[in-house]
């Protein structure tokens, strides 16, 4: 089978099922695992690479209002690759090629590949996505085995957090810093599974633009910063905009040295197998004595030092 993946999480699912050799095309954002290097890239971003976070947010809002896409398909290359299956999503207009771009591509292509749309909003639906890819690629048993292994890891985290503290620590995950966004979808659920309480975001709901005052009022015990599409070094560039806000140093998480910067691009924002890695990260941030940080994800999490500098 010839597979084209238009989003990073789908690429990771395909590879999790041992089908990397069947990937003939990926998106420009697909960067994991290493085995996909050299695979033709079938999408382009319309965003300039040197924009600030605020400028990106403004363009995203404008394009959303105009029903324009942030990404484009390389139709000539897609036609040349002739995939049997194209895996995409419709959950987030900012994360992948828009539906209408794919529909237009199908109209122009001589052949009609199968389209698999993955739009998980929570952890269970992420597992359903793995099963859906397994069914579409003729590997349902591999999918079942992969899901079983991931679910066992989830259960280990849940078990480790049972009865640790009489009160669950309050936590907030910020998905963007300028302007502020709290993380939605699966992230509040992961906090709950890890023995915490997300005090702004709601499981299954979209990420939400919030005021600084709302974060101050929430005053979480733990603050995780996992900017969408950003690595840790890129997020650190925006950190002064957060540290300079009035009352930042008085936040409970800051005073108790429990502010963490995470690689949102690799973990928190990708609804694929590494959401379980994300859960293990969160469990470590909330209950470090009971949940050591796995060595495989150490580079994906950074703790702010006591004076609020990274």
What is this structure's SSE topology?
Elements lengths: L2 E3 L2 H9 L6 E3 L17 E3 L7 H13 L5 E3 L1 H7 L3 E4 L10 H10 L5 E4 L5 H14 L3 H21 L9 E8 L2 E3 L4 H7 L3 E2 L9 E2 L2 H7 L3 E4 L6 H12 L8 H4 L3 E4 L12 H12 L14 E3 L7
Parallel strand pairs: 1-2, 1-5, 5-6, 7-9, 7-11, 11-12
Antiparallel strand pairs: 3-4, 7-8, 8-10, 12-13
Helix pairs in contact: 5-6, 6-11
- What is the name of the CATH class of the largest domain? Alpha Beta
Structural class: alpha/beta
Q: SSE order, as H and E?
A: EHEEHEHEHEHHEEHEEHEHHEHE
Please report the total strand number as a whole number. 13
Strand content: 5-15%
H/I helix tally: 11
Shape: globular
Textual characterization of the structure:
This protein has about 300 residues and is of the alpha/beta class. It has two domains: about 5-145, Nitrogenase molybdenum iron protein domain (Rossmann fold), CATH 3.40.50.1980; about 165-305, Nitrogenase molybdenum iron protein domain (Rossmann fold, 3-Layer(aba) Sandwich). The protein is built from eleven helices and 13 strands. It has helices spanning about 10-15, 55-65, 75-80, 100-110, 125-135, 140-160, 185-195, 210-220, 230-245, 250-255, 275-285, and strands at about 5, 25, 45, 70-75, 85-90, 115, 170-175, 180, 195-200, 210, 220-225, 260, 300-305. Strands 7, 8, 9, 10, 11, 12 and 13 form a seven-stranded mixed beta sheet that branches. A four-stranded parallel beta sheet has the order 2-1-5-6, covered by helices on one side. A two-stranded antiparallel sheet has the order 3-4. Helix 1 links the parallel strand 1 (about 5) and strand 2. Helix 5 runs antiparallel to helix 6 and helix 6 runs parallel beside helix 11. The longest helix is centred in the middle third of the chain and has 21 residues, at about 140-160. It is globular and about 60 Å long. The model has no long low-confidence stretch (mean pLDDT about 90).
């Amino acid at each position: 089978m010839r597979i084209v993946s238009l989003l990073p999480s789908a690429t990771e699912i395909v590879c999790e099922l041992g089908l990397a050799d069947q990937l003939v095309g990926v998106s420009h954002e697909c960067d994991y695992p290493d085995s996909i290097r050299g695979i033709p890239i079938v999408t382009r971003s319309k965003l300039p690479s040197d924009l600030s976070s605020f400028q990106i947010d403004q363009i995203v809002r404008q394009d959303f209002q105009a029903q324009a896409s942030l990404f484009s398909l390389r139709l000539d290359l897609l036609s040349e690759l002739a995939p049997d299956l194209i895996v995409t999503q419709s959950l987030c207009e900012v994360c992948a090629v828009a539906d209408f771009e794919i529909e237009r591509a199908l109209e122009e292509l001589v052949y009609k590949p199968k389209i698999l749309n993955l739009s998980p909003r929570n952890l269970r639906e992420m597992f359903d996505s793995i099963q859906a890819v397994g069914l579409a690629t003729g590997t349902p048993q591999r999918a079942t085995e992969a899901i079983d292994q991931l679910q066992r890891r989830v259960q280990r985290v849940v078990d480790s957090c049972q009865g640790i503290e009489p009160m669950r620590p309050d936590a907030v995950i910020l998905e963007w810093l300028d302007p502020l966004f709290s993380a939605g979808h699966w992230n509040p659920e992961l906090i709950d599974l890890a023995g915490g309480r997300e005090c702004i975001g709601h499981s299954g709901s979209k990420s939400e633009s919030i005021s600084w005052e709302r974060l101050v009022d929430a005053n979480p015990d733990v603050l995780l910063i996992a900017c969408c599409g950003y690595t840790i070094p890129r997020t650190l560039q925006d950190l002064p905009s957060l540290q300079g806000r009035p009352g930042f140093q008085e936040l409970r998480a800051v005073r108790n040295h429990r502010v963490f910067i995470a690689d949102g691009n690799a973990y928190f924002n990708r609804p694929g197998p590494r959401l379980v890695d994300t859960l293990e990260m969160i469990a470590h941030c909330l209950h470090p004595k009971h949940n050591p940080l796995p060595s495989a994800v150490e580079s994906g999490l950074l703790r702010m030092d006591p004076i609020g500098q990274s």
